């Protein structure tokens, strides 16, 4: 892989004290990735990225989480149309009721 940032996706507006916030988030999370894997386990890889849990301008620590580079890249890549895919449980469980089935309630 050749490095290199494609475009300016990283140029989201960060507060002036971002380096301090970032350091605090990493320390709070024990410098471990907080991503939940598809097996419902925490990733716990060493984290060196801080991610916004919800997109937008919320830079509070409650909206920040530590991620390893892999998960950060993965999340950035899937934000948007594919966001639901990873969040889906891996166990196969059809969620939609049968069209002809009416449950009395
Ligand atoms: Zn991770």
> What's the average pLDDT?
79
- Helix content percent band: 10-25%
Radius of gyration: 18 Å
Following the backbone from N to C, one meets helices and strands in this order, namely HEEHH
Bound chemical compounds: zinc ion
Main pleated sheet: 2 strands, antiparallel
Strands of the widest sheet, in order across it, are 1-2
Spans of at least 5 consecutive residues whose pLDDT stays below 50 are: 1-8
Strand content: 5-15%
Please tag this protein with its features.
alpha+beta, 3 helices, disordered N terminus, about 100 residues, two-stranded antiparallel sheet, 2 strands, binds zinc ion
Write the layout of secondary structure elements.
Blueprint: H1 18-28, E1 49-52, E2 64-67, H2 69-78, H3 83-87
Antiparallel strand pairs: 1-2
Bound molecules: zinc ion.
Structural overview:
- With 105 residues, this protein is α+β, with helices and mostly antiparallel strands.
- The protein has a domain at 18-79.
- It contains 3 helices and 2 strands; from the N terminus they run H-E-E-H-H.
- The chain has a two-stranded antiparallel ribbon.
- It is elongated and about 55 Å long.
- Mean pLDDT is 79; it is low at 1-8.
- Zinc ion binds next to helix 2.
- Zinc ion binds at residues 33, 35, 43, 45, 67-68, 70-71.
């Amino acid at each position: 892989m050749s490095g290199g940032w494609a475009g300016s996706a990283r140029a989201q507006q960060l507060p002036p004290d971002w380096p301090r916030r970032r350091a605090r988030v990493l320390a709070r999370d024990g410098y471990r990735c907080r991503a939940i894997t598809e097996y419902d386990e925490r990733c716990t890889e060493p984290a060196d990225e801080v991610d916004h849990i919800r997109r937008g301008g919320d830079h509070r620590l409650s909206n920040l989480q530590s991620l390893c580079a892999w998960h950060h890249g993965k999340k950035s890549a899937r934000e948007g149309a594919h966001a639901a895919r990873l969040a889906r449980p891996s166990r196969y469980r059809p969620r939609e009721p049968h069209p002809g089935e009416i449950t009395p309630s």
